[in-house]
Each structure stands twice: as structure tokens, then as C-alpha cells.
Specification:
The chain has 145 residues and is mainly α. Helices cover 45% and strands 10% of the residues. The chain has seven helices and two strands. The longest helix has 15 residues.
């Protein structure tokens, strides 16, 4: 399944807009071309497409100069609550292995654009994050996030 195949809640878009706002980027600049209005980002019934969130992310990167490490800085804002039921399921899991199994099963409930895989090897588990096939700066931001 590709990240293009599912919609997501507006929580991630809200985090991106708030991050830009704190750095002086107008909401209209960030939302340009997304088809989203600022008020929609607070409505849990709104569904955001991958294309809309990627456009917003691209707008943010253009406005802030595509600085390395920006994705990591934004990613620090994604707490369990931003993920709704998926996040609650992770923190309510009895073990790390249970949380990982749940996470992998319901990846469409994340805001990930990376290819995430998990495999077990003797005495270890290997969780891999592959870069998405997108523009270099956008791809780097999404992996960092």
C-alpha cells in the first residue's frame, strides 16, 4: 500500500501550519494550492490527502529555506495524541513487540511518507525507513520528521 492511497486527519497539517506560523510564515502562504482552509485543520471530520499535505510541506520548505534538520525539528511535535486511535493503541500496548505489530498493521493511520518495514533476524529486530520517491529536499524532510 502506498501513502498516496489513504487520507489522514488534519492533525499533521495543523502541526505544520503552527510550526510555520511560529517562524512568521503566513497561513495563506502555507496553505496555498492545498485546497484547505485554516479552519478545516481543527475539524477532526476533515480528511487530508497525501497530495494536500505534501503541498503544504513543500510550501513550508520554500518559505523557510529548506534547512537541514527542519524535519527533525517538526517531528518533535508529533506526540502520541497527534495520531489519535493509532497513538493510543501504541501506548496501551502491553509490550514493545505488541506496539510494533500494531504500528506496522495500521501504518495508514500515520503521517508517514517513508517506506517502513520490519523484519526479525536472529536475536534482533530490524526496523527500516526508506526515503520516499519525492523531490530530494522534500524526501529528506519527511525522513527526518
Amino acid at each position: 500500500m502506498s501513502f498516496w492511497d489513504f487520507t489522514r486527519s488534519p492533525a499533521s497539517a495543523r502541526l505544520l501550519v503552527d510550526f510555520g506560523d511560529e517562524r512568521g510564515v503566513p497561513h495563506t502562504t502555507l496553505l496555498a494550492g492545498t485546497g484547505l482552509a485554516d479552519a478545516q485543520l481543527d475539524d477532526p471530520k476533515v480528511e487530508v490527502t497525501a497530495a494536500q499535505e505534501l503541498r503544504l510541506t513543500g510550501n513550508l520548505l520554500r518559505a523557510l529555506g529548506r534547512a537541514q534538520g527542519l524535519g527533525f525539528e517538526v517531528g518533535l511535535r508529533y506526540h502520541f495524541s497527534a495520531y489519535g486511535v493509532w497513538g493510543y493503541g501504541l501506548i496501551a500496548s502491553a509490550t514493545g513487540r505488541d506496539a510494533l505489530a500494531l504500528a506496522m498493521r495500521f501504518l495508514p493511520l500515520t503521517y508517514a511518507y517513508t517506506v517502513i518495514t520490519y523484519r526479525e533476524a536472529p536475536d534482533t529486530g530490524v526496523l527500516s525507513f526508506g526515503a520516499p520517491e519525492l523531490d530530494g529536499d522534500l524526501s529528506r524532510f519527511l525522513v527526518e520528521r
